[in-house]
Amino acid sequence: MTVSTSSPEKGPEKNGIAVLTVDFPPVNALPVSGWFALADAVRAAGRDPETRCVVLTAQGRGFNAGVDIKEIQARGAGALIGANRGCFEAFAAVYECEVPVVAAVHGFCLGGGIGLVGNADVIVASEDAVFGLPELDRGALGAATHLSRLVPQHLLRALYYTSRTVTAAELHTHGSVWRVVPPGELHAAALELAGEIAAKDGELLRLAKAALNGIDPVDVRRSYRFEQGFTYEASVGGVADRVRDTFGKEKEGRGRE
Questions:
Q1: pTM more than 0.85
Q2: Contact of 100 with 201, CB cutoff 8 Å
Q3: Which entry of 6, 72, 90, 244 is 20 to 30 Å from 31 by CA?
Q4: Lowest-pLDDT range, 9-13, 39-43, 122-126?
Q5: What is the strand order of the sheet 130-132 is part of?
Q6: Hey, is 133 helix, strand or coil?
Q7: Paired sense of beta strands 165-167 and 130-132, if any
Q8: Separation CA 16–CA 9 (nearest Å)
Q9: What's the average model confidence in pLDDT over 64-89?
Q10: CA neighbours within 13 Å on the CB side: how many for 157?
């Protein structure tokens, strides 16, 4: 279970790229420590003066399945608070990374995954990628801030209330996914875009990132923190545990029928 940083094969168009790979089998549902490790890796890559673009990717069956629900079930309030803080730090690290972040998404991108890609600068996705917030099915709230950066407001509300997902192709029609490619071409497509970005002057790129963040109409840190308050309220009120305790049991029940 790791978050690793590497450089692509050297070449004039690939210098200045840092590739961050998340690998938490089996589904990249990150524990508390994983969210903080990801935040640290993103910030470190952005601070490196040699880095001009970061590519955020993942191994395994999907890009990200959100928080580790089983850890929260086992450890209770301490894990919930830790997950809230870890997600906050990881999402903020992507948004505040000193250089552009390209998210390379395959398979499922759910819950906390939406927080990551919603705060990324550009998204490249494979044809099998799906995006969604199953928070209401998991006894939680949050990341509507980031989904709102991907889809129009009324679609956001429909997706949030129903816990449905949308495909990479659908997000491409909304302009939030830059490019959709076959799964086998995802890594190369992300590196191609990152190489084009990294070919720019590094100092100017950093100024451009700061300028674009400065004109955002929504303060993503404050709005997400506001959402987290309702997650905590749901937990204290008992509704979160009531819903969370059904996690995985519906599937088990169907298997016995």
A1: yes
A2: no
A3: 6
A4: 9-13
A5: 108-110, 130-132, 165-167
A6: coil
A7: antiparallel
A8: 11
A9: 90
A10: 2
Inform me whether the pLDDT recorded for 71 exceeds 70.
Answer: yes
**Alpha carbons 7 and 192: distance in angstroms, whole number:** 13
Dihedrals φ, ψ of 55, to 5°?
Answer: -110, 120
Structure tokens, 42? 């993103």
Closest by CA position to 80, among listed 187, 88, 133: 88
Q: Which of 96, 88, 121, 117 is nearest to 194 (CA)?
A: 121
DSSP for 31-45, please give it. -HHHHHHHHHHHHHH
Radius of gyration of the chain (CA): 18
Of the candidates 127, 226, 228, 139, which has an alpha carbon nearest to the alpha carbon of residue 180?
127
DSSP state for residue 8 in the 8-state scheme: P
Q: How far is 68 from 204, CA to CA, in rounded Å?
A: 38
Give the integer Cα–Cα distance in Å for 205 and 55: 15
* Among the listed residues 212, 222, 72, the one whose alpha carbon sits nearest the alpha carbon of residue 139: 72
Residue 8 has which token pair? Answer: 């692509």
* Mean pLDDT of the chain, nearest integer: 92
Residue of 25, 60, 54, 27 whose CA lies nearest to 42: 54
Instruction: For residues 254 and 257, give the distance between their C-alpha atoms in angstroms, rounded to a whole number.
Output: 5
Separation of alpha carbons 257 and 252, rounded Å = 9
Tell whether omega for the bond before 217 is within 30 degrees of 0, i.e. cis.
no
